């Protein structure tokens, strides 16, 4: 008997998936109308589903004991708590936009580590949305599903996230990074194949969990929005890199100056990384990773000791570049390394963590993968 039949007592109608992501560069730029460059990971959320006719959604997870049920008629922000708030939020936003979904049984399974900054929350929202739509053969543009998932996380879950995670989960393609211009709402697929150049992209989970709902993420976003208002621009993306010094001189608060400097220089680093990738100079992207980490550590102040030790150790062990990735305050680093140096770098990080008394880190496969889809 399948796990789905064991839990719900009926056969499934289909299986849908949405991947997590790792951002190559462009951190905390998405809610500033900036540029980002994520890839989708092989790690994903999978939802096995069947339709119901009673207007109830029942959600179970391989990691939870209980089945959570809620009625579509009574869905409202804050009406469903804990992890089930994410599938509830996906259903709620679809109903808000008049999509004619119905009740469903949903079994959630995941090989994405929670708290690692690999966008498990966005993947869960996207996977739920595509499953609920798929049960009723409703076709929606992937970018629109991403926007719906972001609204669900903002308005239902209460996390002030930007649009990058959802776009990566929905719109990435295998073998490419997604160059996403938030202001223009345009995307381009940038070929990204480190092994072809004798390189590897390492993703190391430092086991220091972060949570976007916490106040620090919201505080960074608020600081950026206040700075834009003080400068009289719609978003920090409007500040030209060439005008950065003059712009910073107009700000009276030193912390605000650092926040603005990070965003403007990070957007330039995304542009530079894409240009280098187009030119076939992937090795030269490494120093941009390292500069990004320094900016996130010193100007945006969102790293933690585990992230800094992992980056510093990777660089000392020969990495071409390394940086924290994700929302910060924990999660993962990425390191661009010669393929032959993969074990050397990972072993060095393991040793450094042991010496610092940190929890043992783990590494993930960073093969650029495809966005959300139906499996069966």
Automatic annotation (TrEMBL):
InterPro entries: Galactokinase, Galactokinase_CS, GalKase_N, GHMP_kinase_C_dom, GHMP_kinase_C_sf, GHMP_kinase_N_dom, GHMP_knse_ATP-bd_CS, Mevalonate/galactokinase. It is an enzyme of class 2 (transferase). Residues 3-50 form the Galactokinase N-terminal domain. The keyword Transferase applies. Residues 274-354 form the GHMP kinase C-terminal domain. It comes from the Bacteria. Keywords: ATP-binding, Carbohydrate metabolism, Galactose metabolism, Kinase, Nucleotide-binding, Transferase. Its EC number is 2.7.1.6. Pfam families: GalKase_gal_bdg (PF10509), GHMP_kinases_C (PF08544), GHMP_kinases_N (PF00288). Residues 89-171 form the GHMP kinase N-terminal domain. PROSITE patterns: GALACTOKINASE (PS00106), GHMP_KINASES_ATP (PS00627). PANTHER family: GALACTOKINASE-RELATED (PTHR10457:SF7), MEVALONATE KINASE/GALACTOKINASE (PTHR10457). Belongs to the GHMP kinase family. GalK subfamily. This is Galactokinase. The gene is galK.
